[in-house]
């Protein structure tokens, strides 16, 4: 009789209805059909001109001119093939390879871009500028997502990214203005954002208040506080309190002239370069060091971590604090790079785009980096398209990060698994 | 147990309800929660349950103390940024009383102005002018109460509805369209506009409910994202011929027809409109729904213990969807209060920050309809008073946001308030032992 | 290393999980703790491992007392533990799990997983574990996961290895492999504490056996002791409750399950092709050690499980595939195993809980309106009838004692006309006085002609109530035997022996007759006191 009992695996295939997620293939198929109908069949039969080099560049690269019809059909076929591949995998209950969704997204973006530029009144875009602008918009998003990664990998939900960024922007502006020091400005941004983080940490870890509530309330609190101080302190004395110095780009001669990649990699402010460093460090730290191993264990299975002697709540507290440091630098970017002064609620929901990038990037620093770039790109494109005069309303481009995220959490863009204990306070018995 | 509507498999050893799935969890939580080891970690003190308990049964004293503390924090901010105080501070050691009187002057002026602009203007001529502030409070409280009810209702089912903002926008959008496009007799037109608003909000809330019930998508993330989607959708439609005011290049709609507006209760001298009565009716309706109806019984059971609810034959998925649809409908009503009540035309700012404020209202109101009504009135008063304070004393209305946030933070963490006031109730100790007892069954 | 637990007492509130337990584990010995689920074995080990703080008592290592404030201390002292629920991070690789908390690092805290991999390979080769250090834990079968846990302990150079119910999740083959591993470990000088309720394994592996029941040590035994002896020590004998009940007068068989198979989400078979029937006016009790498919049996009947196949037939209608609500409304009363998670809403009032699955039906609701006065009257009446000790119908059910909570559930389920009554662990955690009352109500329901299905891990209860007894082991029906089958025979069956092997008469599918098994109750031990 005992021989009839089975191991978990032995009968899985035959009887158990394998749990298949049809969300991803269906979504991909729909998007591929949109590409087919919209970009291939609906091609404006024009050509899109992408200027790579500016007139002043030392190295002149000829413009890339693409026929919308040709590109439309090629990309549509590729997209349909990828969707079909996804269907085939799901039918066989096999997991999709990690590259599938990113590859699909990349091809879809190319198809869309060629179609939309080709359809514009002025089918001509300075591609290098488009990309460089996207990076500038993406940098604070990336810092924000890294903050989220650090919190959520350790098991604390961070809805307060928006508040951290805003606090950082405010701190940098006011201290930068008073001291005329960029360094002091950045440090102040860090301190302001860390304070927000610590409130999050204390309330969610010590008082076990629901982390979502603390996050939401912190956003309102920081918005109220900075707006109040802006109106009472800064507004009437802007020369004294709201004219922070600005970071200048550090241009690496020669390399900065490389088309497309030069400006984004070799013509950035210190904070821009710092972003690359931060992404690398967070990735390296999380996946290659003892600290990272412990952080991830605490976020996945705190009790397992506890049974091997790791102090779960201490670990979480310091991680949330560290997240504040990272978000603070992102906040400083708003007032020390992008804009020359602080303004009420100037982060305007970017903290939530950062949250979206974190989720779409699957809680991975590298993934969040690319997701934030995609979202920065869609934002920048919305500005550019308004100028070029295209059929796609700019609001739809601005909506994109949020729509993509809804799809991601609904499991419609492949499996996206948060740390298993994210948001659950750890109580020792 | 892979029904995506259900929360992740419970730890058989734990006697508490399971925690909600973490953000963005995959349907069924199958991937994350399969091994017994995973199941074992459900914390003995379930955050959701303790949150519900705190929201619904926390004691009134803490609420009062939280409000007092928060006003105190506001007072400190007001004093610290007042020039009279800062200049008196510079010679504090020679004449300390100067600074104290400066502080008193600054804070009493501010809160005095706030009070006069929120309740009763003692300095006004004539009774009508004197009570005008009170009607303003009620006007501002109207959308707060309605949207707050939406958040509160969802809370009771264990859902965080952060999406009030988007639901208000959708409600206002549809109601507004009916209001300025159709030509109908007075009563009917208003009714239709209100129904359209309800439908708009219900759809937006319903999306989050359906994704939660059917795909296991975390409602917090979905509702946040839907807020922004709604904002851009609104901005988009305001550029289309169907919505944009003829002859205008700005993103603003035509005014709604008078027939689609809520009648003013005290005539044209006051902004208070019939929407306030609608809000009171909604309070009564939600109270009835939660406390007296079979649907409410189901919703509350799912919120308090989804596992037991399921065992008792209650459809948990349907409860999530129902809750979010009704919550959205209530926020949609808040949208109609804006479009058919105070604003009369649709713009990007139609929802102001009522959707977010609604969360704080529901928390302060401890998620029960009557409490939410009073919390809405209080925050309405703070907001209406804040406007008056800003115009009379120059103190920015943003201070109200600060006070509001502090109130909620303090209320969410009673031990903090207790330790500030040194109230020793032994609460913390008993909470710990509850957790222990709860675990005992499994530990044995 | 000699490990001694001296006079350990652990209380949770008013509940005493461990009562003055003393255990001495000598070096290089396999010491088994034998006891039913809930006897307090795991609590004891969590105390030892520093996860719980003992209410009283001491832990001694090599005769000197030690204080563990956390698992870290226990590990540093050379104690390793393989928890019943593995403490492994599913999305980590084997090497990452083994390294966690005891990482080998290069400069600047950079992980040197290669060093860990080397250690894993070394241990794996020495004991024949066949564990790939780079495999993801969630992809591994439970047997291999368990070896990862053992490796975790060995890498930390544990001198005493505690295995908490290690075979609960293993197949027989995996179990045999584990026992071999344990022997090798012992021969290498490691002491092993083996916690189990399975007689065969305990007999096979132990050098010393300590039997625990209801939080107390009730005896020691040599591995040569007979299984029957061990079984009776473990389950004890009926305390004083002997209920007078009329013999059953079974009627028509109106309820049956046919080829019921239930799978877990991951495809594991939880209930394997089970078939039986129950007659009107008959109590069928399902005996078995916890986790052998009983929970799934009741939940599948109630429509609470997704992956169930076969048939559940009540009065000719198949219930399988219908909604929970429709099953309840077709006249099935259900007392779930865990009343506080499944049976009650703790923050609801007693009155509300008394209508938890009837709230929308007459007379408690009219249309969408619930009728508060009717619900309150109902509560008053039920509180009286079932002697529910509460401050009143408006008190939160969560504030009631376990026994009174159970009475609420029972009152709700028994106060409507039933075609089938199912009660899972009907008296778990209930005080003695209430037990008798609840048993009488169950028998009264039977005498009213309802088929009754009882699931209980308490043998006393099974023997007390059952007209027939079905034994489940690893999701399979071992056999159905008469209600007066001796409890040591049942104990053997619960450990997997067939009715024949255990010396009982399998009466399935033959309807119950008055045939006695002829084996008089020969319980060798009297009630064991505290030792």
Task: Please tell me about this protein's structure.
The complex is a heterotrimer of chains A (429), B (444) and C (531). Chain A is mostly helical and 429 residues long. Chain A is built from 16 helices and five strands. Chain A is globular and about 60 Å long. Chain B is mainly α. Chain B contains 18 helices and two strands. The two termini of chain B are 25 Å apart. Residues 509-531 of chain C have low confidence and may be disordered. Chain C contains 18 helices and 22 strands. Chain C has helices spanning 41-48, 71-76, 94-99, 113-127, 142-155, 172-187, 199-205, 227-235, 294-301, 324-329, 339-343, 350-353, 372-385, 402-414, 432-447, 459-465, 487-494, 499-502, and strands at 3-12, 15-25, 30-34, 56-61, 64-66, 79-82, 160-164, 191-196, 208-213, 216-221, 253-263, 269-279, 283-287, 308-314, 317-318, 332-335, 365-366, 369-370, 420-424, 452-455, 468-473, 476-482. The chains are: A mainly alpha (429), B mainly alpha (444), C alpha/beta (531). Chains in contact: A-B, A-C, B-C. At the A-C interface, helix 11 and helix 12 of A face helix 2, helix 3 and helix 5 of C.
What about the largest sheet of chain C?
6 strands, mixed
- Average pLDDT number of chain B: 82
Strand content of chain B: under 5%
Give the tally of β-strands of chain B. 2
Helix-strand category of chain C: alpha/beta
Reading the helices and strands of chain B in chain order gives HHHHHHHHHEHHHHEHHHHH
Give the N-to-C terminal Cα separation of chain B: 25 Å
The largest interface is: A-B, 68 and 74 residues
- Strand tally of chain C, please? 22
Rough shape of chain B?
globular
Poorly predicted segments of chain C: 509-531
Low-confidence parts of chain B: 1-50, 426-444
* Biggest β-sheet: strands ordered side by side in the sheet of chain B: 1-2
The general outline of chain C is globular
| DSSP helix fraction of chain C | 25-40%
User: Could you tell me the mean pLDDT of chain C?
Assistant: 85
How many helices of chain B?
Answer: 18
Structural class of chain B: mainly alpha
Structurally, the number of domains of chain B stands at 2
**What count of helical segments of chain C does DSSP give?**
18
Rounded radius of gyration of chain B (Å): 24 Å
């Amino acid at each position: 009789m005992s021989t009839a009992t089975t191991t978990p695996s032995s009968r899985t295939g035959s009887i158990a209805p394998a749990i298949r997620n049809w969300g991803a293939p269906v979504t991909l198929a729909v998007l591929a059909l949109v590409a087919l109908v919209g970009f291939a069949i609906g091609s404006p039969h024009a050509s899109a001109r992408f200027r790579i080099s500016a007139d002043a560049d030392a190295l002149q690269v000829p413009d890339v001119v693409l026929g919308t019809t040709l590109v439309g059909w090629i990309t549509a076929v590729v997209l349909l093939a990828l969707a079909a591949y996804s269907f085939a995998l799901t039918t066989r209950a096999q997991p999709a390879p990690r590259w599938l969704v990113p590859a699909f997204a990349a091809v879809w973006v190319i198809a869309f871009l060629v179609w939309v530029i080709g359809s514009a009144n002025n089918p001509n875009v300075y591609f290098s500028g488009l990309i460089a602008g996207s990076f500038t918009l993406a940098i604070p998003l990336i810092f924000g997502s890294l903050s989220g990664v650090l919190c959520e990998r350790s098991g604390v939900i961070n809805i307060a990214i928006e508040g951290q960024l805003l606090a950082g922007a405010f701190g940098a502006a006011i201290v930068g203005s008073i001291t005329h020091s960029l360094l002091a400005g950045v440090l102040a941004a860090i301190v302001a954002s860390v304070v927000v983080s610590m409130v999050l940490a204390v309330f969610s870890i010590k008082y076990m208040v629901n982390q979502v509530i603390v996050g939401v309330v912190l956003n309102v609190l920081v918005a109220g506080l900075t707006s109040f101080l802006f109106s009472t302190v800064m507004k009437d004395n802007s020369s004294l309190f709201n004219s922070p110095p600005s970071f200048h780009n550090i241009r690496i001669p020669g390399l900065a002239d490389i088309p497309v990649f030069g400006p984004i990699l070799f013509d950035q402010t210190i904070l821009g370069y710092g972003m690359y460093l931060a992404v690398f460090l967070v990735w390296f730290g999380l996946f290659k060091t003892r600290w990272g191993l412990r952080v991830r264990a605490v976020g996945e299975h705190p009790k397992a971590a506890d049974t091997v002697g790791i102090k779960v709540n201490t670990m979480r507290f310091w991680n949330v604090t560290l997240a504040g440091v990272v978000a603070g630098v992102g906040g400083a970017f708003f007032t020390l790079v992008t804009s020359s002064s602080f303004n009420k609620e100037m982060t305007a929901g970017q903290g939530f785009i950062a949250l979206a990038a974190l989720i779409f990037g699957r809680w991975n620093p590298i993934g969040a980096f690319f997701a934030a770039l995609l979202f920065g790109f869609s934002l920048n494109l919305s500005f550019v398209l308004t100028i070029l005069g295209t059929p796609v309303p700019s609001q739809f481009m601005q909506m994109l990060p949020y729509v993509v995220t809804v799809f991601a959490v609904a499991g419609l863009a492949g499996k996206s698994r948060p740390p298993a204990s994210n948001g659950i306070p750890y109580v020792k018995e | 147990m892979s029904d995506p509507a259900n929360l992740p498999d419970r730890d058989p050893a734990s006697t508490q309800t399971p925690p909600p799935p973490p953000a963005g969890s995959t349907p069924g939580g199958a991937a994350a929660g399969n091994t017994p080891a995973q199941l074992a970690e459900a914390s003995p003190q379930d955050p959701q349950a303790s949150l519900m308990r705190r929201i619904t049964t926390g004691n009134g004293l803490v609420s009062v103390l939280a409000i007092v503390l928060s006003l105190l924090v506001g007072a400190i901010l007001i004093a610290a940024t007042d020039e009279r105080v800062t200049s008196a501070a510079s010679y504090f050691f020679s004449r300390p009383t100067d600074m104290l009187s400066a502080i008193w002057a600054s804070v009493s002026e501010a809160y005095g102005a706030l009070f006069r602009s929120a309740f009763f203007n003692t300095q006004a001529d004539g009774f009508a002018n004197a009570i005008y502030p009170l009607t303003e409070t009620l006007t501002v409280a109207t959308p707060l109460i309605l949207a707050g009810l939406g958040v509160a209702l969802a809370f009771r089912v264990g859902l965080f509805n952060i999406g009030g903002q988007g639901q208000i926008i959708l409600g206002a959008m549809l109601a507004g369209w009916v209001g300025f496009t159709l030509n109908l007799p007075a009563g009917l037109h208003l009714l239709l506009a209100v129904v359209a608003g309800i439908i708009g909000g219900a759809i937006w809330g319903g999306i989050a409910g359906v994704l939660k019930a059917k795909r296991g998508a975390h409602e917090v993330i979905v509702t946040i994202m839907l807020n922004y989607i709604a904002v851009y959708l609104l901005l988009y439609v305001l550029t289309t011929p169907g919505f944009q005011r003829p002859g205008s290049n700005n993103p603003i709609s035509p005014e709604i027809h008078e027939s689609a507006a809520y009648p003013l209760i005290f005539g044209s001298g006051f902004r208070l409109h019939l929407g306030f009565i609608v809000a009171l009716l909604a309070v009564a309706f939600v109270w009835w729904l939660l406390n007296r109806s079979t649907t409410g019984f189901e919703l509350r059971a799912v919120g308090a213990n989804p596992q037991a609810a399921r065992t008792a034959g209650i459809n948990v998925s349907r409860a999530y969807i129902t809750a979010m649809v009704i919550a959205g409908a209530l926020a949609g009503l808040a949208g109609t209060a804006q479009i058919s009540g105070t604003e009369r035309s649709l713009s990007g700012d139609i929802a102001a920050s009522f959707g977010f404020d609604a969360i704080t209202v529901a928390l302060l109101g401890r998620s029960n309809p009557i409490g939410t009504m009073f919390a809405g009135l209080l925050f309405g008063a703070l907001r209406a008073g804040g406007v008056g304070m800003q115009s009379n004393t120059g103190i920015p209305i943003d201070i109200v946001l600060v006070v509001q946030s502090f109130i909620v933070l303090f209320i969410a963490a009673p031990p903090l308030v207790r330790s500030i006031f040194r109230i020793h109730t032994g609460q913390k100790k008993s909470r710990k032992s509850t957790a222990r007892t709860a675990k005992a069954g499994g530990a044995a | 290393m000699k490990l001694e637990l001296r006079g350990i007492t652990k209380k949770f509130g008013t509940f005493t999980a461990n009562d003055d337990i003393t255990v001495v584990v000598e070096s290089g010995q396999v010491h088994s703790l034998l006891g039913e689920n809930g006897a307090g074995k795991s609590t004891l080990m969590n105390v030892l491992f520093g996860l719980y703080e003992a209410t009283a008592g001491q832990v001694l290592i090599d005769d000197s007392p030690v204080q563990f404030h956390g698992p870290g201390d226990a590990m540093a002292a050379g104690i390793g533990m393989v928890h019943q629920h593995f403490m492994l991070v599913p999305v980590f690789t084997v090497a990452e799990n083994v390294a966690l908390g005891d990482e080998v690092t290069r400069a600047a805290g950079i992980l040197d997983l290669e060093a860990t991999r080397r250690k894993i390979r070394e241990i794996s080769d020495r004991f024949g574990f066949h564990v790939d250090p780079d495999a993801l834990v969630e992809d591994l079968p439970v047997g291999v996961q368990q070896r990862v846990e053992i490796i975790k302990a060995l890498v930390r150079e544990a001198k005493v290895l505690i295995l908490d119910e290690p075979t609960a999740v293993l197949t027989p083959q995996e179990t045999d492999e584990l026992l071999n591993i344990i022997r090798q470990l012992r021969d290498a000088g490691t002491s092993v504490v083996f916690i189990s309720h399975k007689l065969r394994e305990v007999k096979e592996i132990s050098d010393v056996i300590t039997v625990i029941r209801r939080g107390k040590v009730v005896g020691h035994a040599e591995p040569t002791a007979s299984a029957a002896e061990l079984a009776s020590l473990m389950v004890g004998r009926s305390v004083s409750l002997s209920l007078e009940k009329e013999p059953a007068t079974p009627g028509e068989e109106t309820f049956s399950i046919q080829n019921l198979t239930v799978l877990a989400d991951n495809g594991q078979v939880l209930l394997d092709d089970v078939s039986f029937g129950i007659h009107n006016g008959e109590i069928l009790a399902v005996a078995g050690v916890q986790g052998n498919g009983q929970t799934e049996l009741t939940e599948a009947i109630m429509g609470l499980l997704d992956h169930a196949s076969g048939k559940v037939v009540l009065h000719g209608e198949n219930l399988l595939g219908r909604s929970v609500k429709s099953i309840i409304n077709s006249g099935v009363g259900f007392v779930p195993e865990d009343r506080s998670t499944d049976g009650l809403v703790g923050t609801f009032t007693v009155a509300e809980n008394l209508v938890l699955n009837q709230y929308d039906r007459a007379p408690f609701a009219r249309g969408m309106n619930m009728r508060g006065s009717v619900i309150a009257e109902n509560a008053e009446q039920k509180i009286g009838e079932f002697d529910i000790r509460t401050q009143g119908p408006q008190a939160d059910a969560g504030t009631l004692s376990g026994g009174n909570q159970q009475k609420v559930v029972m009152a709700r389920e028994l106060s409507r006309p039933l075609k089938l009554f199912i009660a899972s662990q009907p008296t778990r955690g209930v005080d003695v006085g209430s037990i008798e009352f609840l048993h009488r109500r169950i028998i009264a329901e039977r005498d009213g002609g309802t088929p009754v299905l009882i699931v209980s891990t308490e043998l006393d209860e099974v023997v007390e109530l059952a007209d027939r007894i079905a034994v489940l082991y690893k999701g399979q029906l071992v056999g159905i035997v008469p209600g007066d089958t001796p409890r040591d025979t049942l104990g053997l069956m619960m450990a997997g022996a067939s009715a024949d092997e255990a010396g009982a008469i399998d009466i399935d599918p033959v309807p119950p007759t008055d045939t006695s098994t002829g084996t008089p109750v020969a319980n060798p031990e009297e009630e064991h006191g505290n030792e």
